[in-house]
Amino acid sequence: MDDEYLRRYEHQEFARGVDREQVRQNKRIADLEATVRQINDLTLSVQKLAINMENMLVNQTEQSKRLEELENRDGEKWRSISMYVLTALIGAVLGFALKEVGL
Questions:
Q1: Transmembrane residues, as ranges (predicted)?
Q2: What is the DSSP letter of 6?
């Protein structure tokens, strides 16, 4: 019957072991919570970065379109001027030819 009961010092030693294990587990839980917070912060940062990159892509696309329009505008002006000059030359040649024919 003596084997069924723990002596006081055995119980105290067991309780100290349980307390040490509890302290160790609490430290591990605190470390895990800190890691989870860091992962959450990193996830939010990546999400913000993705949103910013998407906005930058939209802005870059708009700027590319505007640049293309500006580049084409000079080409359009050049083509218009060329057409006016060509029309004037053709008109002058036709006028000279008609004058020579006597019309």
A1: 81-98
A2: -
